[in-house]
Specification:
Length: 187
């Protein structure tokens, strides 16, 4: 990773984590690393801030459905040597629905499944061998993971994410990402 993006991500992480306890909006912070699913040879580094919804559904049993807003900044870097552009930033906001087991009934370990569709804004419309035509993209995700800790404050999960412009304009290369996600919830 080049020096400037590393410094920007480090500053964002520091600002997000240090301001998280003082903010009423930020309920959790997350860090993800992943790679694309094609020959673009791209790595993804992502930091996110989450805001839990005040509403949940199907709360009568051991499982319930809730959700959160997921605001993320990603740095993507392609290792394709003859590429016109080898890096870009991705700013996104996604409402995520999560089905999970009540942590209190699970001895502190709670599996979850989640899904969401949100908006992405890319800093460039090319990365490696791919052209995305528009800076505005849609991102859909599905994920599985575990919450653990005394109050379920730690999360470890896997996400599959597809980002494309939904054929607003051609070409629409899109990208498929496999992500390992770590998160910490403040409350």
């Amino acid at each position: 990773m080049h020096k400037t993006p590393r410094l920007l991500l480090a500053l964002l992480i520091y600002t997000g984590v240090s301001g998280a306890s003082a903010s009423n909006w930020i309920d959790a912070v997350s860090f993800s690393y992943g790679q694309d699913d094609d020959s673009n040879e791209s790595d993804v580094y992502r930091v996110g801030l989450q805001n839990n919804w005040e509403r949940s559904w199907f709360t009568d049993g051991a499982w319930y459905v809730g959700g959160y807003w997921d605001a993320e900044l990603a740095y993507m870097e392609s290792d394709v040597s003859d590429a016109e552009n080898s890096e870009l930033f991705d700013l996104s906001l996604t409402p995520v629905f999560r089905m999970q087991r009540d942590t209190g009934l699970s001895s502190g370990v709670s599996p979850y499944a989640e899904a969401g569709v949100g908006a992405h804004l890319l800093s460039e419309t090319r990365l490696g061998n791919n052209s995305y035509s528009t800076a505005f993209q849609f991102g859909s995700l599905v994920g599985l993971g575990l919450s653990f800790g005394g109050r379920g404050q730690y999360q470890l999960g896997y996400r599959f994410q597809h980002i494309s412009n939904a054929s607003i304009k051609s070409p629409n290369s899109g990208m498929d990402l496999h992500l390992l996600r770590l998160a910490y919830a403040f409350d």
